[in-house]
Description:
The protein is α/β, with parallel strands linked by helices and 247 residues long. It has helices at residues 47-63, 79-92, 102-105, 109-122, 139-145, 153-160, 184-207, 211-218, 223-235, 237-241, and strands at residues 5-11, 14-19, 22-24, 26-28, 71-73, 96-99, 128-131, 149-151, 163-165, 170-172. The strands form 3 sheets. The chain has a 5-stranded parallel beta sheet with strand order 4-8-7-6-5.
Amino acid sequence: MKKKFEIRSHDGPGRIGKIDSEPSPKLFFRNDLKIAPNQGSAHNVDREIAEFNVKETLRLAEENVDECDIAVIQGSKYIDLRIECLKKLEEIGYNGFIIANGDALLTNPKELVELIVSLKKQARKDSYFIFSFAELSFMPILTYMGIDGFLADSANYYSHLNVLQTPTKAYDLNSYPIYEDTSQEELENKNIENMEFVIREIHAHMKNKSLRNLVEERSGTTPQNISTLKILDRTHMDYLLEHTQLF
């Protein structure tokens, strides 16, 4: 049974809402989600492989629609396949979606922007989007583009790599021993704690209509981050202005 998503207000394309009475944007823990089985693939694959994976993902999603409330948007680097996957998943009955290959998208700002904006323009208003493997410094701009939640599993992923995630930087603890003799579990807990802080930070800025300020502040943290904002501004200003309050 799909979760009810209610939009309360906007800050740019970013949305303040409720997902089954819980405020969004929010963190999602995989164990709390009923994710439909899907056929995953790498981001950079031949189109024939991506087409097969989308077809299998749709088949599995339809077979499990009565037990699952979240589907995965596959399609690799092919935006038209991603849109096709989204629309058919909506027709099947889903309104919560995980965008596959999030880690690869973060290293390709142009593809990241084009994919998210394209999906948002094509999606139904009651559909919500979850990003996986998000670095904390990217969470504000992803929210600004319209992402409604983040998988907390990324905290575990980065702890496996011995990486500490902070709001502004990812620290490889092998090179920057900020915390020494820290277990993987302790590091995962620190990463989750920092993710929760960024979510609270995003909420506070959205309530004050200052999310764009936070986005610009974080844009200087990595080359990929600033490239994402520049591409977004240059190619999709109409999309940004659609829900931006004018003074």
